[in-house]
Each structure stands twice: as structure tokens, then as C-alpha cells.
Amino acid sequence: MHYMNFNNVVLVILLIISFNLFAGETTPLSRVELMTLGEITYKTCAVCHGMKGQGNQLFAPPLTNNSVVNGSIYPLISAVIEGIAESKYSQWQSYMPSWSEVFSNNELASVITFIRNSLGNSLGDTIQPSNINIAKNLYNAIRGAKLTGHKNT
């Protein structure tokens, strides 16, 4: 079993505490701006998930009434930013690619806002580009942390 060493734990805690430092100086987008850009960006997602979020039986789950879409925001942000690996335990015969290098933070925040507030979903929340920036920085910090071995005695 691997545990993070003390320095890396401190680093992650400092990152969490200083979220505002990582948020960047972006101006929040209005709900209308997010939904408009999100609808445009979603056309890429629709190739697999369908124009109405209905999914595809073989390789993409529906986004309508989906527990990941309608649950806590963090798993959805993670799925969009980091992607989802194919699993032999999943009914889906595909994987979802990472979109963090394809879309801007504005586009990522917009498409997540659009998905959670259309396609049969109506959470009423908005995700800002600063939320995406925070998540990216946190994932990068965790990815960069070196794990040290620990044996239970």
C-alpha cells in the first residue's frame, strides 16, 4: 500500500486552503453566457452522448437523469477534465477522453453547466471557469506528488 509522504500531504492541504489563489483572475460568466457557449460546445459531446443526451447503448451513457450528472459536481468535473478509462466492469465498451487540453476553461465550465441544466436535467447551478482552473491545478498537484512505500508492522 502507498501513502503520500508528509511534504506532499502538506502541499495538497495548502492547495485546498488556497483555492482562491488558483482560481485565477477570470471574470465570472453569466448563466446566459454559460448556457449559450455550453450548447455550442456540447455538439462535440453529442457525437457519443446524442443531441438530446440520450446516450448510445454500446459506448456512451445517457446524460439525462444520470447520477453523475445530477449528483455532486466534482465527479462530473473530473470526468470531463480527466476522462474515464474503459473498465471491464462497465457496460460501456468505450472510454471518455480527457477534454482539458481540447477546450478552454470557459468551454469546459459552460458545457458542464449546459449538461446539468438541459437535456432533461435541471439542477439550476452554474460552474465557473475558475472552478475548472482550481480542479486542474489540484489534479496536477496530486499527479505530481510522489508516493512513498509504507509497510505495516
What does this structure look like?
There is one protein chain. The protein has 153 residues and is mainly alpha-helical. The protein has 7 helices and 2 strands. The chain has helices spanning 6-17, 19-23, 31-49, 67-70, 73-82, 105-116, 129-144, and strands at residues 2-4, 147-149. It has a two-stranded antiparallel sheet. The protein is globular.
Q: What would a concise description of this structure say?
A:
Helix content is 51%, strand content 4%.
Biggest sheet, strands in spatial order? Answer: 1-2
User: What's the helix-strand series?
Assistant: EHHHHHHHE
* DSSP strand tally: 2
Q: Helix/strand-derived class?
A: mainly alpha
**Gap between N and C termini:** 13 Å
Q: What gyration radius follows from the Cα positions, in whole Å?
A: 17 Å
Fraction of helical residues: 40-55%
What amount of the residues lies in strands? under 5%
**Biggest sheet layout:** 2 strands, antiparallel
* Poorly predicted parts: none
Number of helices: 7
Q: Quick check: average pLDDT?
A: 81
Q: Which word captures the global form?
A: globular
Map the helices and strands:
Elements: E1 2-4, H1 6-17, H2 19-23, H3 31-49, H4 67-70, H5 73-82, H6 105-116, H7 129-144, E2 147-149
Task: Name the descriptors.
153 residues; mainly alpha; two-stranded antiparallel ribbon; 7 helices; 2 strands; globular
